[in-house]
Amino acid sequence: MTHIDSSNGVVLVRAADAEVIGSSPQTVRLLADSSATGGKLSTQRVTLADGADGASPHHHAGSAELFYVLGGSVLLLAGAEVITAGQGDLAVVPPGLTHAFAAARSADADLLIVITPGVQRFEYFRHLARIASGELPRESLLEVQERYDTFFDDSPVWRRARVS
Asked: What stretches of the chain show up as alpha helix (H) in DSSP?
């Protein structure tokens, strides 16, 4: 649960109170949504096990996305380039640039992801969980791209990187 101190605007999310979506090999901890931060940012922690996919190629029209690698090794698509980032590395993807991420082959990855300005995205992750459980078809994401500022892209570079 997100706690907002009304006297000074501090947003505090206790680890035990964060909503957890999914389980290994992909776990998302919902930390602070845009409504909790006055629209400044939204953030989640994503843990990927053993080379698991994180997000398929997409872009955000109005938000930048920051990836901070808390542990492990992650592959990041940034436009037409695939880069590897390790513990302590930071990448910031500007609005409009196609990007994706996954744990590197045979590696785990633990990421703090921040989107700014914030977008109400917690329901997006719940939507993804409903797709994973079979409640909704994958195509249902196309109907909510604008709502979550997440527009799906094709990337032959990413496809090649993920099969090699």
From this structure: 122-132, 156-163
Instruction: Report the pLDDT value the prediction gives residue 5, as an integer from 0 to 100.
Output: 57
- The 10s digit of each residue's pLDDT in 26-51 is 999 999 999 999 999 999 999 999 99
- Please tell me whether residue 150 adopts helix, strand or coil conformation: coil
Alpha carbon distance 63, 2 (integer Å): 22
Query: Strands 64-78 and 19-23, how do they pair?
Result: unpaired
Structure tokens at 2: 């997100």
Strand extents, DSSP E, the chain: 2-4, 11-13, 19-23, 26-32, 42-48, 53-59, 64-78, 81-86, 90-93, 99-103, 109-116, 151-152
Please confirm whether the linkage preceding 57 is cis (ω < 30° from 0): no
Read off the tokens for 81.
């380039």
Q: How far is CA 102 from CA 48, 121, 137, in A?
A: 7, 19, 22
- Structure tokens, 142: 């196309």
